[in-house]
Amino acid sequence: MICDIQRGGPSTGLPTKTEQADLLQAMFSRNSEAPIPILAPSTPGDCFWVAVEACRIALKYMVPVIILSDGYLANGAEPWRIPTVDEIPGIQVKFATDPNGFHPYSRNPETLARPWAIPGTPGLEHRVGGIEKQDVTGNINYEPLNHEKMVRLRAAKVEAVGQDIPDVVPVGDPDGDLLIVAWGSTYGAITAGMKPMRAKGHRIGHVHLRHLNPLPRNLGEVLGRYRQVLVPEMNMGQLLMLLRAKYLVDAQGYNKIQGQPFKQVEIEAKIEEILG
User: Fold this and answer.
1) Which of the following CATH numbers is that of domain 171-275: 3.20.20.70, 3.90.870.10, 3.40.50.720, 3.40.50.920?
2) What are phi and psi of 189, to 5 degrees?
């Protein structure tokens, strides 16, 4: 699990200020075709539960997971009751122990995860490293069709995480004039900003994404219920780019890259500008 607490960049940049500019880096920075699950908390307290969820996905699907938090959350605080151990969902970990029929790249048909053998377990020794492996055996392999199969398997394993992601349910109106789609610490300003605008009679929904890769499976259907889509982000429009590419939706961005979080009045003014 990798925790990326975003601040204004690049390099040292604005070390005490906030930003949301690492989404595309998280999506595409691994060399070759090697996608990775990405999660984002929305409040300081939510950071704990997102970390639990990231660990569960990493262990169930045997894949690295990135958490995208940001400076506003890292320096923020909220009342939060420490949960008991019994309140935290269990995470099952199963190690391979039987050498009979063991293959390091045999896969669980549901998750496509490989078996996990503790290094040094007698009879379960296998190769590790960066050179391409043969499917099932784990032997070094340069065959073109095997390479294509392994690339597609890596992508399919991340997509399979979608079966554990609940459908999104918009807060506010389930259809209508405007859907606000966002992620991370913009949650508070959007939640506060849309309330007075709905009180004026506008039909507005809000989807705040916790899972950014893969996206919830019903998101495309939800986007189609609204006449317009707004994506507020503290970057140049990274989630906006992904949504427009994947769903061909004519969404518009609202971008703030000043090292400061959105304010409620800014969200209200943008909604007013769009809806009139």
Assistant:
1) 3.40.50.920
2) -65, -40
